[in-house]
Each structure stands twice: as C-alpha cells, then as structure tokens.
Amino acid sequence: MLSLSLTVAVLALILAVLALTAVIITSRRQTQLLERQQQRLMMLTETTSEWLAVKKQLDKQNDFAQTEQLQQSLELSLKQQLDQRSEQLLQQVEQLAQQQQALQQKLQQVSEQDPGAKLYQRAAKLIADGATIDEVMQECELPRAEAELIAAMRRQ
Questions:
Q1: Closest by CA position to 16, among listed 101, 125, 118, 127
Q2: Are the C-beta atoms of residues 98 and 11 closer than 8 Å to each other?
Q3: How confident is the model at residue 132 (pLDDT cuts 50, 70, 90)?
Q4: 3-state DSSP assignment of residue 143
Q5: Of 32-41, 104-113, 122-131, minimum mean pLDDT range
Q6: Cα three-residue angle 143-13-32, rounded to 5 degrees
Q7: How confident is the model at residue 135 (pLDDT cuts 50, 70, 90)?
Q8: Contact 8/117 with Cβ under 8 angstroms?
Q9: Contact 22/100 with Cβ under 8 angstroms?
Q10: Rounded Cα distance, 46 and 68, in Å
Q11: What angle do CA 114, 118, 120 make, to 5 degrees?
Q12: What is the DSSP letter of 129?
C-alpha cells in the first residue's frame, strides 16, 4: 500500500515537473521572439534615422518640391512598414498568449487528475513551511511513515 501511494506521488510529481518544464520552455521561446522583434524594431529605427538624414540633406539644397515629395514618400513607406510590423507583432503576441493559456490548462488538468497528489503536495508545503511530522500527520491524515518520507524527500 505504501509503495503504491509512493509510486502515485512520484508519478504526480514527475507530471508536475514535466508541465513546469513545458511552461518554462514556452516562456523562453516567447522571450526569444520578443528579442527578435525588438531587434527588427531597432533596424526600422535606424532606417528611419537614415531617411531623416537624407531629408535634411535635401532641405539644405533648397529644393522644396522635391523635398516635400520625398518626405511624403518616406512617411508613407515608413508608416506602411510600421503598420506591417505592428500587425505581425500583435499576431505573434496573440499566438503566444493562446499557447500559454493552453499550457496552463494542461498544467491544471494534470494537477486535477490525481486528488491524492494534492494531499502529498499539501504535506510537502507544510513541511517546507516548517511544520512538524505530527502536524503534517494530523493536517493531511497521513501515516507517520508517509509523513516522514515526505519530510526526508523535502530535505534532499
């Protein structure tokens, strides 16, 4: 009976660790995607700076009509590029949010699958918070051997 309970607890712990690992991996991917988008935005900013430098040169040449036409062209091009990038970023953020929500639902399903695992998780939390073996036995209605085993696992 003890080994079955221990096996169930270990399996529940392994499932929880796997779910947590999946969440961490997804978070890292999200961070990488955001970093790439920041780099792209920096490139756009640099391009805009270059275009503004060209505009200033044309202003110095006192060619007002050509400068105005170039300015409108640059503004339109820049606006189109920024709109495209913004739309892409919004789509990616929406996809990432959906992925994160799906992972959270999976994690919740895993934690809800084994009600006995909740009892062991609660016992482990009590031990982490400094509860004694007797307090854990009383709170979680566990035999002394199981409470001591959880305490020993928590210390490692």
A1: 118
A2: no
A3: very high
A4: coil
A5: 104-113
A6: 155
A7: very high
A8: yes
A9: no
A10: 21
A11: 110
A12: T
Residue entry with tokens 């170039």: 70
Residue 72 is encoded by which pair of tokens?
Answer: 């409108």
DSSP string, 86-125: HHHHHHHHHHHHHHHHHHHHHHHHHHHH-HHHHHHHHHHH
Q: Cα separation of 8 and 143, whole Å? A: 16
Q: How far apart, in Å, are the Cα atoms of 32 and each of 29, 35, 37, 92, 111?
A: 5, 5, 9, 12, 28
Q: What is the pLDDT of residues 91-116, one digit of tens each?
A: 988 888 888 888 888 877 766 666 66
On whether the CB atoms of residues 12 and 75 are closer than 8 A, the answer is no
Q: Identify whether the C-beta of residue 120 lies closer than 8 Å to the C-beta of residue 9.
A: yes
Q: Outline where the chain has alpha helix (H).
A: 2-60, 64-113, 115-128, 133-140, 144-155
Helix axes 115-128, 133-140, angle to 10 degrees: 150
